[in-house]
Specification:
Number of strands: 6
Largest sheet: 2 strands, antiparallel
Distance between the termini: 12 Å
Number of domains: 2
Strand order of the largest sheet: 1-2
Radius of gyration: 18 Å
Bound molecules: zinc ion
Order of helices and strands: HEEEEHEEHHHHHHHH
Helix content: 40-55%
Shape: elongated
Length: 197
C-alpha cells in the first residue's frame, strides 16, 4: 500500500507538474501518460501508480490496496481530490450501476460531450461485444448478481442468462469455461485497473 510518507517531494513535484489544476470544482486532468483505460499513471518507487489514487493519498487519506479511488465526476484522468472518494469494489460497482441508471437524457455528459465519457458509461445500454460478454462472465464468477450485471450494462436479465447458459456468444463462453482460478484473478486485476481501483 502506497503511503504519503513514501511519496517524496520530488515525486510530488512531478505529480503536480503534470496535473492541469483549475478551479476547485473543475476537473483537474492528468497531462502525462494514460493507461489504456484512461487513468493517469506515473512511477513512484519504481512502480506504476494510478494518479487518481496518488491524488487521494496526497490529500491525506489512506488508501489500502483493496479499496477503490472512485470518481464522482466520471472523468478517469481527473486528479482533483474533491472529485475522488474511497469505496470498496462493490461500492464502486454500485456507483457505476447508479450512474448507468442515471445516464439517460440529453443533459448527461455522455450526450453533451461524449469524448470525455469514460468507457464504463459507454456500457450503459451498450451493444454487446466480445469484451463486454467476457466481463459479464467474469463478474458472474465473482458472484455479482445477474440483475446487477444487467443494470450495469443496460441489458435485460434474460440476455445475461442467455450468455451464462451458453445460448448466445458461445464462442466466448466456451473459451471461458476452461478458465482456471488464476486466469479469473488476472482478468479481475485487469478490470480493476480499468474500473478505477
Ligand atoms: Zn473530476
Amino acid at each position: 500500500m502506497l503511503l504519503l510518507k513514501d511519496i517524496s517531494w520530488e515525486a510530488q513535484k512531478r505529480f503536480w507538474n503534470k496535473v492541469d489544476v483549475r478551479g476547485p470544482e473543475d476537473c483537474w486532468l492528468w497531462k502525462g501518460t494514460l493507461v489504456e483505460a484512461g487513468y493517469g499513471k506515473m512511477n513512484i518507487l519504481k512502480k506504476h501508480q494510478l494518479t487518481h489514487r496518488v491524488s487521494v493519498i496526497l490529500s491525506g487519506r489512506e488508501l489500502p490496496g483493496d479499496l477503490c479511488a472512485c470518481h464522482t465526476c466520471d472523468v478517469r484522468a481527473c486528479c482533483n481530490p474533491r472529485h475522488l472518494f474511497i469505496g470498496t469494489r462493490s461500492e464502486n460497482l454500485a456507483d457505476m450501476t447508479m450512474k448507468c441508471r442515471r445516464a439517460r437524457g440529453k443533459t448527461h455528459r455522455s450526450f453533451t460531450s461524449p469524448e470525455s465519457t469514460p468507457r464504463g458509461e459507454k456500457h450503459c445500454g451498450a451493444k454487446l461485444n466480445d469484451n463486454i460478454v467476457r466481463e459479464i462472465i467474469i463478474l458472474k464468477k465473482c458472484d455479482v448478481m445477474s440483475k446487477d450485471i444487467a443494470v450495469r450494462f443496460g441489458v435485460s436479465t434474460a440476455t445475461i442468462s442467455n450468455i451464462l447458459n451458453g445460448n448466445r456468444w458461445k464462442h466466448i463462453t466456451a473459451i471461458q469455461e476452461n478458465y482456471s482460478a488464476h486466469d479469473v484473478k488476472h482478468e479481475l486485476a485487469m478490470m480493476e485497473v480499468s474500473h478505477g481501483r
